[in-house]
Write a structure and sequence with these properties.
The protein is mostly helical. The chain has one domain. 56% of the residues lie in helices and 6% in strands. A two-stranded antiparallel ribbon has the order 1-4. A two-stranded antiparallel ribbon has the order 2-3. The radius of gyration is 20 Å and the shape is globular.
């Protein structure tokens, strides 16, 4: 499904290239047989917003949406497993899926990064691609609703993903669920996370009578650098060159 490649690009960290080739993406959207008229309008709304906004402002808005707080993270398994050990095994299984299909990731990105996931399924047969989206439909639905309630045009991508995959979710239930959530991207919420993640270690050295403690700052749970567009290499064809 070629439209998944377009969605992958639109959901990646915005670049000057994305703005430059905006018209080419618009042509693909307009000619796609996988989109309904309403889906087409939604994607064009976001695409034109990306084209018309100042790049630095666009990048700052993207960081605010997807890199501040966990509730709108593009890392799929963060919404399922959090920081549990199960997340590591899920990563291994997903990477195996990519490799068994003959592809390898050529950028430094976690395998559950949503744009990467979409890029992979854009190379697969339509029915397999739809099943791949349906496997994560609840995550897509909740992310889309959170973005919608934050009045972000990016929610259109998530709406279209659900539409093209044939997923069936209760929109009213999602709306009610998200409306009851506390936002985690405010300064107050981020300070709270920082405080909760500070770990205090008390020395066990018997020669120390002061019992003084040292603290370690928590490691960043999200990449501190912009996400690059994803790329795939067909391992078989690469080896034959």
């Amino acid at each position: 499904m070629k439209i998944l490649k377009v969605l992958s690009l639109m959901m990646s960290y915005p670049t000057a290239e994305l703005q430059t080739y905006n018209s080419e993406l618009e042509e693909i959207i307009n000619s796609s047989q996988d989109l309904s008229p309403s889906d087409r309008i939604k994607l064009l709304t976001l695409l034109h917003a990306i084209r018309d906004q100042d790049l630095m402002d666009l990048q700052e808005d993207y960081d605010s949406l997807f890199e501040r707080g966990r509730s709108t993270s593009m890392l799929l398994f963060e919404h399922v497993h959090g920081e549990s050990r199960d997340r590591g095994q899920a990563m291994v299984d997903l990477m195996a899926l990519y490799e068994n299909a003959g592809y390898e990731v050529t950028v430094r990105e976690l395998p559950d990064h949503l744009p990467l996931y979409l890029e992979f399924f854009s190379t697969r047969p339509a029915e397999e691609a739809k099943e791949g989206i349906q496997d994560i439909e609840h995550i897509v639905g909740i992310l889309g609703e959170r973005l919608k309630q934050r009045e972000s045009h990016y929610h259109h991508c998530f709406d279209v993903l659900l539409s093209v995959s044939g997923a069936s979710l209760d929109a009213q239930q999602l709306e009610e669920q998200v409306s009851k959530e506390e936002r985690d991207d405010t300064l107050e919420a981020m300070d709270k996370v920082w405080e909760d993640e500070m770990v205090t270690f008390t020395t066990t050295d018997p020669s120390s009578s002061s019992g003084c403690a040292t603290t370690n700052a928590p490691q960043m749970t999200k990449p501190a650098v912009p996400v690059s567009p994803v790329h795939w290499v067909d391992a078989a064809s690469s080896a034959s060159k």
